[in-house]
Amino acid sequence: MDTLAELRAGRLAGATRLDLSCGLTEFPREIFDLADSLETLNLSGNALDALPDDLGRLHKLRELFCSDNRFTKLPESIGQCSKLDIVGFKANSIANVPAAALPASLRWLILTDNQIEELPDTLGHCTRLQKLMLAGNRLSRLPDPMAALQRLELLRISANRFESLPDWLLSLPRLSWLAAAGNPFDTQAEDAAITAQSVPHVAWQDLALGKKLGEGASGVIHQATLKSSQQDVAVKLFKGAVTSDGWPHSEMAACIAAGAHPTLIAAQSRIDGHPDGTEGLVMALVPPSFRTLAGPPSLASCTRDVYADDAQWTADVALRIARDIASAMQHLHARGILHGDLYAHNILWSAQGGGRLGDFGAGWMTGSLDASQTAALQRLEMRAFGCLLEELLARCSNAPPTAVSALKDRCMHADIASRPSFDEALRILQREAAP
Questions:
Q1: Whole-number Å distance between alpha carbons of 263 and 370
Q2: For the segment 30-45, what is each residue's pLDDT rounded down to a tens digit?
Q3: Binding site residue list for ATP
Q4: pLDDT at position 172
Q5: DSSP assignment, residue 399?
Q6: What residues does ATP bind to (predicted)?
Q7: pLDDT per position as a tens digit, 133-158
Q8: What CATH topology corresponds to 291-432?
Q9: What would you report as the CA-atom Rg of the chain, rounded to the nearest whole angstrom?
């Protein structure tokens, strides 16, 4: 029996989570029978365009997901759910976000890939907000009351219509992961960066694709062989649609502009002649001894990566990983590139080989910004590095140097101007690392 039939038969009494993806055009009223237990409601992948006016009857609801539906307006009844922690309405046709639709309890709001031109000032009342996903809309400004979002750590405003960034954005004390590529102020910088740092082109016919190595929102990565040289490489084929980070074209631009660096997984060449017109990049194949440092954030952890329960390393290994990533970030900042997603889940590591930074899905350029804005944005990424240091040091099997713990604290300082640059961080890590 399917889930909807079980719900209607009363067999789901006491359920804390309900997932329904079965072509719904109306909200099943039987969901209210779970009002005293339901905490997570996932109605993604249906044909809904409205929620009931009395949604607040679900008084224990903490997580609501309605992505890939037909909403044109964020339902105001959402605001009645006073315990809502996470709301996700990705890939609808939402153009209207009423003030009443935003409960003050929100910690994570996902409105990616809609048609939103304006956000209400009351978004600034959601002071618990840590994660805000707005890529792929029609926004040209953010409400000034959002300056009150002192807990905001991750913001995605890529693929919108911003001519500039609001000044208050660059002083938020906890903002660490910011993506803003594919806006008018950034697109010229993208084009200039690609022109300045061109890469060779490889014909699709010269590639023999092997097994799939991984898949993300923006594309699929395969192991491959260059037929002409018999060289083993990695190939990323882009999907083309807007992602939670922005446009795949922006990712390609950042990856190409990054150039070569020993601790960076960057582009070696660009693919021409794919039979479906798919864009793609050829990258170095990282040895199989390297593995991903951590998993991405969970619904519970929100902005922080999830490590394996047994994740542990010596202080020397932790310092080598930190040094390698600091070196990669120093290189990117020197080239006017912001990574936007400096996380352990985008780092490959091995005990002997150190760390390698990849995934430019949230990468963007600072070429059109003035020096003070660029410096502030680079200091935002220092807080992301501070989070990484904190996670690495917490899992050391022996005590790390006190100077590195002090560096971590400086990287996470609430006053952005007090944070070090990657130049300084790298000098400290090189000094403290084992010979």
A1: 28
A2: 999 999 999 999 999 9
A3: 236
A4: 97
A5: P
A6: 236
A7: 999 999 999 999 999 999 999 999 99
A8: Transferase(Phosphotransferase); domain 1 (1.10.510)
A9: 23
